[in-house]
Amino acid sequence: MRLQHATWPEVETYLQHSRGIILPIGSTEQHGPNGLVGTDALCPEAIAWALGERHGVLVGPTQNLGMAQHHLAFPGTISLRPSTLIAVLRDTIESLARHGFTQVFFLNGHGGNIATIKAAIAEVYSERSLSRQNEGQDPTQSEMALTLFNWFAGRRGRELASELYGDAEGNHATASEVSLAWHAADTMKQVAMSPEVAPYGSAECTAEVFRQRFPDGRMGSNPSLSRQEHGARFLEAGVEDAWEAYRAFVGQA
Ligand code: NI
Questions:
Q1: How much distance in Å is there from the Cα of 31 to the middle of ligand 1?
Q2: Shortest CA distance to 111 belongs to which of 47, 211, 190, 44?
Q3: Which of 233, 60, 25, 66 is nearest to 149 (CA)?
Q4: Mean pLDDT of successive 10-residue segments in the chain (253 residues)?
Q5: Average per-residue pLDDT in the chain?
Q6: How far, in Å, from the CA of 176 to the mean position of ligand 1?
Q7: Can you give the pTM of this predicted structure?
Q8: Domain edges within the chain
């Protein structure tokens, strides 16, 4: 079930049997010459929507903007500062907490978001842990459990990427994410690329330095190997990986 397609009484009913919600989170950033700017949001969103349909879990709106400052030298990229993204995530989590959601599962599509999502989780936990010193604080407020799962790090997806692309998978504008985003958006782009496999290096730099290091935006990848039909297989792998992680999370939480 998608939150955006539900009514408030339906959400109220859902809360009677589940306190869990999946929040897809990605980025709006360049993904090389043939990858969609929305890749990092489209991939976790497609996986989350499939989970919502197959397993009845509630899926919140996709957080389409992430921490992507290093991609800003490429047109189309929109970035939030880490502090802005932390504020957005805190307010999102606290809104859900107000209604009784206690298990929030971030399904992430962007490596550059990881540190910031973890910082936002630590902020929410800190607020609860510290406020318990106050007299009269509702102790149930501290029950919130939050977790982060990166779809691109799931075991089945990794195995499929290595089977299809080997060392040419890379780590930005990867062949796997380009395939999955094409499948999700029902499109594809044929673009000649040189060199075939992009250089590797660090993305911990300013946008200008990033573009000098990675002139066409790719890092270590050869996404000319991407195919829409591969995307359908990455969706299946991602759904299984994410469902396994979600079940483990709500079971423990
Ligand atoms: Ni990406």
A1: 6
A2: 44
A3: 25
A4: 98 97 98 98 98 98 98 98 98 97 98 98 95 64 88 98 98 98 97 96 97 98 98 98 97 68
A5: 95
A6: 9
A7: 0.96
A8: 3-252
Neighbours of ion ligand 1 (CB under 5 A): 40, 177
Cβ contact 92:105 at 8 Å: no
User: Does domain 3-252 bear CATH number 3.40.50.10310?
Assistant: yes
Q: 148 CA to middle of ligand 1, Å?
A: 16
Integer Cα distance of 9 and 62 in angstroms: 21
DSSP 8-state symbol, 241: H
Distance 233 CA to ligand 1 centre (A): 17
Following CA atoms 66, 70, 74, 77 in sequence, which dihedral angle do they give, to the nearest 10 degrees?
10
- Ligand 1 centroid to residue 134 C-alpha, Å: 43
Cβ atoms of 106 and 124 closer than 8 Å: no
CB atoms within 10 A of CB 148: 18
